[in-house]
Amino acid sequence: MIVIDRLCYNSGLRYVNAMEKFVFSMLTLLLCVSSRSIIAAILVLLVTGTLTVEKGGIPLLCYLKLITIPLVFLFLSISAVLINISRTPLDAFAIPFGSFYLTGSVQGLLWGVQLISTALASVSCLYFLSLSTPVADILGVLKKLHVPGLITELMLLIYRYIFITLRTASAILISQSSRLGNKSLHTARKSFVAMASSVFVLSVRQAGAQYDAMEARCYNGRIQILSEEHPAKYSEIFCIAGFEVFLFVLIVILKYKSSI
Amino acid sequence: MIETILKAENICYTYEGEKSPALDNLSLNIHRGKKIACMGSNGSGKSTFFLCCNGILRPDSGTIYYQGVPLNYSKKGLLSLRSKVGIVFQDPDKQLFSASVVQEISFGPLNLGFSEAVTRRKVQDIMDKLGITPFAHKPVHALSGGQKKLTAIADILVMEPELIIFDEPAAALDPLHTDLVHDIIGKVTEHGITVLMASHDVNYAYEWADEIFIFHEGRLLKSGSPDEIFSDDTLLKTASLKPPLILSILKNPDILKKKGKRYYSQ
Q1: What confidence tier does A84 reach under pLDDT thresholds 50, 70, 90?
Q2: What's the rounded Cα separation, in Å, for the pair A41 and A32?
Q3: Is residue B254 one of the residues assigned to a domain?
Q4: Is any Cβ of chain A less than 8 angstroms from the Cβ of B165?
Q5: How confident is the model at residue B265, as a pLDDT?
Q6: Is A216 within 8 Å of chain B by CB?
Q7: Which of A76, A78, A120, B62 is deepest in the core (most CB within 10 A)?
Q8: Would you call B90 helix, strand, or coil by DSSP?
């Protein structure tokens, strides 16, 4: 979370118009998910990955690490699609298991690969957005799209509070371990409980103080703030539109071919 | 004739669930354009009084007057009061709520009803004046303590209040940022803005203030010029304050004989 935030603020794409980035990642995500095609997914993965690493200047190793986080969950859930337990072996593989077989079909395998590639490509779209656009800018975009103020204001406060809470928690953890709070499993468990409850109490107090401070600045129930804007460039809009059209046409052709 | 900008008359305030009052029949006068230091130990009622000045807390009894008019606690009255009285809170993390510095500073002026264009100009202005521009593009949570403090001060200055309250502005700052903050406070008073500051720094208060309020257990123990306050030994003892270094050296030059031999012999 903190790593993503730090990378995002140093990204080379940070000062590109936020609406462009938002539209690009959302359209691509939508097309990619609706296409259900391995080729389209790989193309999207390559393009967003290259943009994030090359243009955004995110270190490749960092990006690969981030991409592999969802892989763990993916493989866990995909295994249900890939592996069947049945009395008769299927065509892809079959491992005898008493009177049963752990088995899978070629069609199931293909489906699994398609699911994984689509999911990875979707995640790469979201990573593209979150590794290039600060939360403050994303909120500006949502505001322009007329998302209710209540939601954007909550997002703003939650975002700020994540960092305050994390910092409080880590300060308490450090102070606990400097007093041997983690000596044994038993004390570590106790310390963790104490930390969790005091973080809760502290955040309630923090919220009260913050509300007072906002009131002192004439807060009237609506958080009004400036959004930072970076002008959109025609060349960028042209490229995005070109890519989306290309992707769309590709998907249509692939569908057409597979339906014949 | 000196104009009184804010006047408190016998105000009492007790926090819910507490037995002893935080403010106990506090009365004081704040004169326009003055530099006023509020001193006293922790829990002596300074911060509670500040919250009352801004209408965040409403005294249980007693009245606060702003420019001779009792505070009006209706929504409209509070908004107009808060546009004139600003508080820079002690802990910037409890004041800053926004994701970026520009957004943070723009909150006040937009609430006052300025247009986006005017607000943008005001924000840029204040950032230039306080030297915030170099880190204006950083997220608030990545700022250093000193940078957060400067942002918190800009938050309030950009609203151009008539009275600014600084609650221990130099708490937990390094010497460089302490000087920066003191510099800013100096400039603020040059513009005719009344400044009320809580501080534990007797040396700075002695040098800077026109008037010092000594708070003790929710009451005003004494108010007066720095000379009057720091020459009153029994008062200092009750309020657990030490006299400024410069005065203690004047009173007891033997300190230099012991500690500063090198300088003393010259």
Answers
A1: confident
A2: 6
A3: no
A4: no
A5: 60
A6: yes
A7: A120
A8: coil
